[in-house]
Write the structure tokens for this entry.
Amino acid sequence: MDKASASIGLDRVEVAHDHMSADAVRARVRAWYRVKARDYFAYRLGVIAKGLPWPQELQKFKLKEMRTRWGSCAAGGTVTLNPFLVRANRECIDYVITHELCHLREHNHSPEFFRLLSHAMPQWETIKRTLDDMAEVLLND
């Protein structure tokens, strides 16, 4: 059986392994990110939803790797988040979650949606620019 260990630094992930292909290592790292994303996003969704007046219950969410999007919100209220978002800082994660939760009230990008987002997170535009600037690094492994 192949053995592997991983350590995370500020600017790198190191994986030590015995006889594993690069694809197998990549799959294990992605799986690790998914676990971390699931747990952290569930926590932050709860915290953010409690601070907003419209979510009536803890929102269901799912993870989906997306090449160009951080998240989405289905008409039924399910929030989908990109697991690679977990690589970003908390402020950026909170922006994406807040953005998607605002879609529970306004399922579009109308002026009312942006008024709602600005009320929930006044500095969202600066945070979005920061996230956009990191997108290429965060979305690629």
